[in-house]
Amino acid sequence: MDNQPDIAAGRLPESAYAENFGDVHPPLDRKAALVESSRCYFCYDAPCIEACPTGIDIPSFIRKISTDNVRGAAQDILQENIMGGACARVCPTEVLCQEACVRNTQEHKPVQIGLLQRYATDAVMEAESHPFTRAEPSGKTVAVVGAGPAGLSCAHRLAMLGHDVVVFDAKAKAGGLNEYGIAAYKVPDDFAHREVDFILEIGGIEIRHDQALGKDIALAELRRDYDAVFLGMGLGGVRALNLEGEDLPGVHNAVDYIAELRQSDDLRSLPVGRKIVVIGGGNTAIDIAVQTKRLGAEDVTLVYRRGPEAMSATHHEQEFAQVNGVKIKHWAQPRQLRGAHGRISDVVFEYTQLDENGRLAGTGDAFSLPADMVFKAIGQAMLPLPQANGASDLLEMDGERIAVNEQRQTSLPDVWAGGDCVKISQDLTVAAVQDGKLAAQSIDSFLRG
To answer: CA-to-CA distance for 135 and 155, rounded, in angstroms?
Structure first.
């Protein structure tokens, strides 16, 4: 990234970076956890369990915290969600378990389930012994493609059940989006790497890095060499705006910049513009907007083509961005990216509205926003599946993503899939973990006949 007069590194005092990218939600101490756990009604038909994609018995683990049985609480969580530590930090609990909490009906203040989950899982991750042990070896080996939440969840459950697992990942580090794609202030202190190490403590899991499907490995070969295959490679492509000026210097994919930020050893070295424009309305758009602001950008504007209720980022995330100085402008879509002196200078937007049929339409009125840097965050797309000896010809697709049944089995009898690459999954870490767990249970049944 070329340094320009309005794009520079080290805009802030050294101490500001540690503060801006420190833990956005400080953990509970023992006293606070005991007080918060006492607020739970321990409902018999707890709606919070139904709202949790992984089905954690939330009243059970909170009750154990209230009696100081923290290890037991963590086992309740991790039995259903081995990445409970990450999910406690990044899961949108405000629209899942905490929204369903019955405390909302009386106090409009739910039990802080996410923080309690973090309190329990952090304690067991720091313990010397792994909370789970492996079953007797089955003699079967499973290939897992992708070391993100879906792949790691599947691998861990298969290892618990006695199978050997080889994980192939295209990146140099395991963790997927938790390592490369989530805002640094949500998972500070190298948490994603530490969680991977914790998962691998079960044994029986080998990770092979820099192994991309279709380039270094082929689906047909995996099916030939392993007893079953799980695909959890996520979405490798980034959607384009398909607009004039999109290739100008200064126009970036948000996911690439976030990955660069997450892997940086010195945040002061990251160049950032004074005027930032972010195009999109999801969590990635919020994350890049807030992080550039915390890197020292003076003016950050996020533009979305519809209203706030249509944004995939939760209301909580939108409010968090605005509290951090990000301006959110709704009902506008980009029309042109203009340049000056060989790089981006401004973005032209057209105001939008819904027509009489409820479809999005431009109004014809336009405005422009000056920009030193523009970040595209309009979603990711699945890369075309490689044609490997005809094997992927039989892999049924549902639109752009892989079609699977409720057990996450694909149209191929020995291939399962989960996470962002499948149609039925939500684009959430917790949903990907559930996909991996369900697939592992189905694979185990398949392998045992």
So the answer is: 14
Nearest residue to 195 (alpha-carbon basis) of 92, 118, 116, 86 = 86
Torsion sign across C-alpha atoms 372, 377, 378, 380: positive
Residue 310's CB is within 10 A of a number of other CB atoms, namely: 12
Hey, what amino acid is at 183? A
> Binning pLDDT at 50, 70 and 90, where does residue 5 land?
low
Q: Which amino acid is at 152?
A: L
Per-residue confidence band for 393, with pLDDT thresholds at 50, 70 and 90: low
What is the rounded CA–CA span in Å between residue 6 and residue 297? Answer: 10
For domain 141-236+382-447, is the CATH number 3.30.70.260?
A: no
Quickly tell me which residue has 């756990």 as its tokens: 37
The alpha carbons of the chain give a radius of gyration, in whole angstroms, of 23
Q: Would the pLDDT of 25 be above 60? A: yes
Same fold, 141-236+382-447 and 238-380: yes
DSSP H or E segment with residue 168: strand 164-168
Residue 333, phi then psi, degrees to nearest 5: -125, 145
* pLDDT tens sequence across 254-309: 999 999 999 999 999 999 999 999 999 999 999 999 999 999 999 999 999 999 99
H/E segment holding residue 151: helix 149-160
> At 390, is the pLDDT very low, low, confident or very high (cuts 50, 70, 90)?
very low
Taking the chain, what is the end-to-end CA distance rounded to the nearest angstrom? 54
Taking only the tens place, the pLDDT of each residue in 105-120 is 888 999 999 999 999 9
Hey, what CATH topology would domain 238-380 get?
FAD/NAD(P)-binding domain (3.50.50)
pLDDT digits (tens, 9 = 90+) for 211-259: 999 899 999 999 999 999 999 999 988 899 999 999 999 999 999 999 9
Shortest CA distance to 273 belongs to which of 405, 375, 133? 375
Burial 125-145 (b: 16+ CB within 10 A, else e): beeeebbbebeeebebbbbbb
User: What is the spatial distance between Cα 92 and Cα 165, in angstroms, rounded to a whole number?
Assistant: 30
Q: What contacts 396, CB < 8 A, 6 or more positions away?
A: 402, 403, 410, 411
Q: What are the domain boundaries of the chain?
A: 30-125, 141-236+382-447, 238-380
Give the separation between CA 339 and CA 336, rounded to whole angstroms.
Answer: 10
* pTM of full prediction above 0.90: yes
> CA–CA separation, 210 vs 94, rounded Å?
36
Q: What is the DSSP letter of 43?
A: -
